[in-house]
Write a structure and sequence with these properties.
Layout lengths: L1 E2 L37 E2 L1 H4 L8 E5 L3 H12 L3 E5 L11 H13 L3 E3 L4 E7 L2 E6 L4 E4 L1 E4 L31 E3 L2 E2 L11 H15 L14 E3 L4 E6 L2 H6 L4 E7 L4 H6 L6 E7 L4 E9 L2 H13 L4 H6 L9 H12 L4 E2 L1 H5 L5
Parallel strand pairs: 2-9, 3-4, 3-9, 4-5, 14-17
Antiparallel strand pairs: 1-11, 6-7, 7-8, 10-11, 12-13, 13-16, 14-15, 15-16
Length: 354
């Protein structure tokens, strides 16, 4: 959080200049991993410094961080078990992405347990045993806790600064203003807990302090990437979310191995492109790309969702051959030929829809 002190030289609109920030406290930004203590447990930032590597590890939580680090440790030879309480890993992503990444992780030897919450933990530092709902147990040398993050506002003295918090996060307006001469950014606002969101918010704050007119951040077009191999990049609404909003939804799913680039790239390639289309508005409202460099392919789709680009415009775009992003054109081609939801037959026969 930045507090503008009286000494800030504020000249108003369009005048370039320097923003001087003096904080009355060293920093009011906070993020806390509020997690129960477990014996032998490590949080992600500690885990990556592990030396020597443990022989085995339970990753508690199959979200983005759990899947990323679970795969990393597994590839370094650690025996990994991922335990996820929801019925699928990557529960915030499209089910197709969860299924595909789950099968990739399992094919690499990772034990993926879903729909299982931890009830209790025991053991010592070198031998942790977790008891799961239903009585099953899993044990390993270490536990990596990746069950999500929250912010801790309790000791920041927000009241004394006149800042309103809605219980979990600091309330901000479109200009990231949290109060008179006070701005908040990053995880503490609960808007989108990503580095790129914080960076964009910081630019909004700087623009506001300099008095610039600027468009509010479009959080509905906030991209997110899970850096597994293959990567999962997604933006906007999932199919289920679009339906919940009452949109007339059509979906196009293309199997990456059956795209030109996928076919050329590697016989073992796995991936998919899923496009969520609002047929009423004729625009793309959400997209998921699971592919090598899926986060890069996502760029084009983020722009399309951000700009509410008509599907016809996306379809008339020329896609370079042979590229991964060309798969978007192939998925749209199939959608154009179909009458609504179009699933690549190669995707259906790949077993991921089973
Ligand atoms: C393992 C992991 C992987 C991630 N991967 C990605 C990713 O790939 N892409 C992505 O976009 N995002 C990722 N994130 C999320 C990203 O790190 C956060 O969204 C981002 O760092 C938020 O920035 P922030 O400034 O709000 O908080 P932080 O980066 O957490 O910075 C807050 C700082 O404030 C300090 N602080 C806290 N309280 C006080 C206090 N009272 N006084 C002084 N200092 C204090 C903290 O020590 C910290 O340095 C990841 C997060 C984790 C945990």
């Amino acid at each position: 959080m930045i507090r503008r002190e009286e000494s800030l030289d504020y000249h108003g609109a369009n005048r370039p200049g320097k923003i001087e920030v003096r904080a009355s406290k060293p920093c009011l930004t906070a993020r806390e991993l509020r997690l129960a203590y477990l014996p032998g447990a490590a949080f992600p930032c500690e885990a990556i410094a592990a030396d020597p590597l443990p022989g085995s590890m339970i990753v508690l939580g199959g979200g983005a961080v759990g899947c990323e680090l679970g795969q990393v440790f597994s590839r370094f030879g650690v025996e990994v078990t991922i335990v996820e309480g929801r019925d699928r890993i990557l529960p915030l992503e499209e089910p197709e992405a969860s299924l595909l990444i789950g099968s990739v992780l399992q094919s690499e030897g990772i034990d993926v347990r879903t729909g299982m919450r931890v009830e209790s933990a025991g053991g010592a530092d070198d031998d942790v045993e977790l008891t799961l709902e239903g009585g099953a147990t899993v044990s390993a040398n270490r536990v990596l806790v990746a069950t999500g993050r929250t912010v801790d506002l309790s000791e920041l003295g927000l009241d004394s600064a006149g800042v309103v918090a809605n219980g979990r996060f600091v309330d901000v307006d479109d200009r990231m203003r949290a109060g008179d001469g006070i701005w908040a950014m990053g995880d503490i606002t609960g808007k989108a807990m990503f580095t790129h969101a914080a960076l964009q918010q910081s630019a909004t704050i700087a623009g506001d302090i300099l008095g610039r007119d600027q468009s509010p951040i479009r959080y509905e077009a906030m991209p997110r990437v899970t850096f597994t191999d293959p990567e999962v990049g997604s933006v906007g609404l999932s199919e289920a979310q679009a339906e919940e909003r009452g949109l007339d939804v059509a979906v196009a799913v293309k199997n990456v191995p059956s795209t030109f680039r996928g076919w050329l790239h590697d016989t073992n390639i796995q991936g998919l492109i899923k496009l969520v289309i609002d047929t009423g508005a004729g625009t793309l409202v959400g997209a998921t790309v699971v592919a090598p460099s899926g986060g890069e392919v996502l760029g084009l789709l983020s722009l399309a969702v951000h700009q509410r680009t008509p599907i016809d415009a996306l379809r008339s775009l020329t896609y370079a051959f042979p590229t991964f992003h060309g798969g978007i054109g192939e998925a749209l081609g199939a959608y154009a030929r179909g009458t609504g939801t179009v699933i690549d037959p190669a995707y259906e026969t790949s077993g991921h829809l089973l």
